[in-house]
Amino acid sequence: MKRLCLLILCIFSLMLTACGGQADQEKLDEFKSQLSQRETVSFTADIRCEYPDKTHEFSLYYEGGTEGSTVKVLSPKMIAGVSAEFSPDGTSLNFGETSVDTGNLDEYGLSPMSALPSLVNLMKNGFMESSWEEADFSVYELSLNDNLSAQIWFNSLNMVPVKAELISNGTVKVFCNIDNWLKIME
Length: 186
Known about the structure:
Blueprint: H1 2-37, E1 40-50, E2 55-65, E3 68-75, E4 83-87, E5 90-95, E6 98-103, H2 115-125, E7 127-134, E8 137-143, E9 148-155, E10 161-168, E11 171-179
């Protein structure tokens, strides 16, 4: 009898997990749909990039649409105003009226300037690997391939992203605190 009760509890637990996973997938699909329908998306982010021998911190502004995206450095002050433009034709680094063509980005490479476009791409096209609740946040682990994934914390009430960690080859490389996200879940 005890074994039967234990078996029933295990099956019931699995059923609850499956229901939660389906509900989380539906919330994510709704977010992705609304994100894809927007003509432009913009936000600011404080990011920390971890390299094997150093750490760099930046404040960045992201604006993107169907034709590409732009990332502008807000700080550190020494390089404020530098921007990178990402389009299907390639990437260019700009400062004032000067533009330097940097070529296409490597599919798996992360840099401070490519982190936010990569994050938005994961939000739009990533596959949900797992999800869980953490305090007032819904956390989703999304991946595009074996080499690039992210854990993204959304406000549970309105599905606005507030924090993310970009993971390259299994290691967190970029930590993002997201601000001023356009409210897409109105």
